[in-house]
Specification:
heterodimer, A: alpha+beta, 8 helices, B: alpha+beta, nine-stranded mixed sheet
């Protein structure tokens, strides 16, 4: 894990400084210690996820279900934070959200992540973001940078969702077109990554 | 203008586009007219921070053939349609800037606040919906920008056309400010608040159950 990269994303607000970062390395899983200040994060702040209490089973369930997920963090970017308070799914009104994040982003209670991690992961489906009610969202990616892209694009999607309500309402992209866009993006991106 | 000069203008514009916060990563695209038949245009899928001058593609607008290290942007037909319908257009920028994209998601024309009409005109038109890179998106955007300097591309972003790259940048930045002001005005009208703040807008959104 690139510590200086983390500090940049924490400083610009994409990763919550009192949140957590988890990552996979050689089929081992690590997470930041409870109470770690991510703005000043150090190598020794990461501990083996299997020995940690912070959403341990939920994070392990994500890594085990999605083999392409190597990084997970928590965000409370302002628009995501507000959208998480509605408790409702956010569907894409902009095609970049459809492409990168997926058809829609669900919202679950933190308790569900703690008590029924597999059910919470199921709610995530193949999206790269899952909102946690009243708190923000969990973002995942094949790298930390990828996960931050999802966070930024989803925050923009939430901004559109909130602010277009004052313009008479935004128009959602159809679920079918969103699905196609997401799959095409994944295919194109995985080909580029292989190159 | 030589190809090399046009490539440099496009490359510099790409870096500036990221700095101004109008795009991130590989999103958005930029082109510069070289002559009546050719443009220099950003390639598809290469992040601006690693792009080199020779990665900028040279596109023939007559037969859509191109030269360069990488395939030109997937929105190249949109750029070409705008150049072909107006010979005064010398630079085109397509962005996913946040405030204008919010207006584009509502698929409604943007009534430009008075302080920005010198640059943008009275109205920035919204296009009908079309998939990225599709004929519908190209035709709709070219039609919406005709006679103006910018268009809101439904559920996608914006496109602006300038008499040079500096002009195109000025239009894109002004459009972002105008869209922000437009949204703020709509919030103030509906909420009865006297002053705008993001917190007030979000609280109103939640309290009124506008979701």
């Amino acid at each position: 894990m690139n510590i200086s990269e983390i500090k940049i994303f924490v400083k610009n607000g994409t990763i919550k400084k009192t949140g957590f970062i988890a990552y996979r390395e050689a089929e081992k899983f690590f997470v930041t210690k409870k109470g770690a200040n991510l703005e000043e994060v150090k190598e020794e702040d990461f501990v083996n996820l299997e020995n940690s209490g912070i959403l341990k089973n939920f994070l392990l369930a994500i890594f085990q279900k999605a083999k392409n997920v190597n990084a997970i963090f928590f965000t409370d970017l302002p628009n995501i934070f507000t959208a998480s308070k509605t408790g409702k799914p956010v569907k894409p009104m902009l095609d970049d959200m459809a492409q990168i994040v997926g058809i829609s982003v669900n919202c679950v209670d933190l308790k569900l992540c703690e008590k029924s991690p597999k059910r919470a992961v199921k709610k995530m489906n193949d999206r790269t973001v899952l909102m946690i009610k009243d708190l923000g969202a969990i973002c995942v990616g094949s790298s930390l940078e990828d996960a931050t892209v999802s966070a930024i694009v989803f925050d923009k999607g939430c901004k559109t969702y909130i602010e277009s309500s004052f313009l008479g309402g935004g128009v959602y992209i159809s679920p079918f077109e969103s699905w196609i866009m997401h799959k095409v993006y994944q295919l194109k991106y995985s080909k580029q990554a292989k190159k | 203008m030589t190809e090399q000069v046009a490539k440099k203008i496009v490359l510099d514009a790409g870096i500036r586009l990221c700095k101004e916060g109008l795009v991130a990563r590989t999103w958005g695209n930029i082109s510069q007219r070289i002559d009546d038949k050719t443009i220099a245009i950003t390639p598809s899928g290469i992040p601006y921070d690693v792009l080199k001058e020779d990665d900028i593609a040279i596109l023939n607008m007559e037969d859509m053939s191109w030269r360069g290290n990488f395939k030109p942007s997937g929105e190249r037909k949109l750029h070409v349609a705008i150049y072909l319908q107006d010979s005064n257009v010398k630079a085109v920028i397509h962005t996913h800037q946040t405030n204008a994209s919010t207006c584009a998601a509502a698929r409604k024309d943007l009534v430009v606040p008075n302080i920005y009409t010198d640059t943008l005109g009275a109205v920035v038109k919204a296009t009908p919906y079309g998939l990225p890179g599709s004929k519908n998106l190209t035709k709709g955007s070219a039609s919406a920008i005709k006679g103006g300097v910018a268009a809101l591309i439904a559920n996608h972003g914006v496109v602006v056309a300038g008499k040079n790259m500096e002009d195109a940048f000025n239009i894109a930045i002004t459009l972002e400010k105008a869209a922000e002001k437009f949204i703020e005005q709509k919030f103030l009208e509906q909420s009865g608040e006297k002053e705008f703040s993001v917190t007030k807008m979000h609280n109103y959104f939640l309290q009124k159950g506008r979701f």
